[in-house]
## 1
Amino acid sequence: MGALNEAYTGDVHGVRGADYACYREARRAGLRGTFRAFLSSRVQNVNSIVRQADRKLPVSNLRGEVLFNSWSEMFKGDGAPFPHPPRIYSFNGKNVLTDLSWPHKAVWHGALVDGVRALDTSCDAWHAASRDKVGLAGSLKGPRLLEQTPYTCDKKLILLCIEATSELFSPRNRRDVDNRYSLINLNDTSFVFLHRPFIYLRSLIKSGEFGKKSRINVEKCT
């Protein structure tokens, strides 16, 4: 688990835009696993981000220090209590709890205490940065990651990324990489959809986040 290199308002171009930011910064940091945004949205619960086979593994920070005993343990309904004070680092190596780049030591998540999406408190599906919208966040100085504290969406908070598929399971040959990542351009905004990109695209269309007049270009990328 790591943080993006700067603080963000509630407008991150939707959860797919946040996923792409996690993918991009992880790759620039030399990490080969698949990182996705720690966010609930209209199309996903935060507790479902990590693949089933990895949910019993410890959750660690980018330096290998254990934050939670397992992914599954985080979503038992008690709000993901920290077993000890967390140390979370950004992809460029900064400690988000001590660095001034993050004025508010709270993490956007938009989820209920069990990791299920909270539809009315996710900054309009992470497209809003206004004071009249709110999103749920949890303080890294508090006892639980999934605290149910509403913040107005103009606040700049920490955005976490989680390694949804580890490097151990990442493809090794170029053909597999080409088949695994697709770049989809929606209204001139690029997003990388990880794993079964057309399933994500289908869910995006069903959710209404994708208008009929949107222009779609699909191309392979690595």
Note: Residues 14-28 form the longest helix (15 residues).
## 2
Amino acid sequence: MNRRPALRTASVLGALSLVLMSGCSSDDTSSGGELKADEGPLSKILEPLWGSYEDVDWAAQEAEIENLVAQCMTDKGFEYIPAPASSTTVVTEDDMDEYGTEEWVAENGYGFSMNEEPEDLEGEEVEEEYVDPNAPYVESLSESAAAEYYEALNGPDIWSDMTEEEMEEYVYDWKEGGCYGAAQHEVNGETDAYSDEEHAEVTEAMDALYTEMSNDPRMTALNDEWAECMADAGYPEYATPDEAMEAAMNAHNALWEEASTGAVDEETGEFPEDFTGPSDEALAEAREMEIAIAVADFGCKEEVDWEQESLKVQFELEKQFVQDYKPQLDALVADAEAGSSE
């Protein structure tokens, strides 16, 4: 069965890259050294906020959350069996060393089509289908009791009546997330510092920083050079690298949306067991398109030195941002560290 990959918009990836993937070897971007995307001015000051993924025991963290959920559900009058640890794949620094290289791009494009056809991935074990240990209990409940169960577990259903625009603007509040929201907040409380209203001024300014960078005249000129190269490669329709990535992403999204239309069971809200998603031929065509665009994108970025030139702009803006918001950034980091020590 083809599995639906998790796709994220290019704009979100771009915005996050300012915080998670920004950096250079020195705050002085005129030193002549190669800029690196993991030590920038903003990344340095926010490093305690994000921490190191390699330091996290994901299985233990997941088990702790499940046990807290079970206790919470019991307190609300329901039975709940903690779900077994999933086979979550953690991306390490070694994985990131390969990501985005010429060889990786030639094989995976932007990565949107990875794992869509697990039967074709030699040497990789296909995950076993997840079985909810609580399904028999929920099935034994009346329709109204089952609805109360899920509301206790995940919070009230706020999504059904939301427009797409409202979904995009929605800011998660763990207090609306039922037992899962409370458990995740207790275990991962430090991550909530970023979404705390107390720090809205600086976090909103960080979001705006990406827009400022995109509109910078130096980025406009750099993207014009890149677009000219892409036109020569047969892709005159893209003005920026984000547009090229979004085109590949949208092609995959369109396939899954088309295949999903009318496939969901109206009573259960789930896909039938025999749902396979888009055809292998359609997926292969989308994958071929994605890789072709990504390879051209990679080549044109190399030709105009897009990564280094864009990092120069980014780090200059970040350096000024840190100067302008140093007290607010320090307060954000302090709250995050306080949460992690609780």
Note: Residues 1-31, 117-127 have pLDDT under 50 and may be disordered.
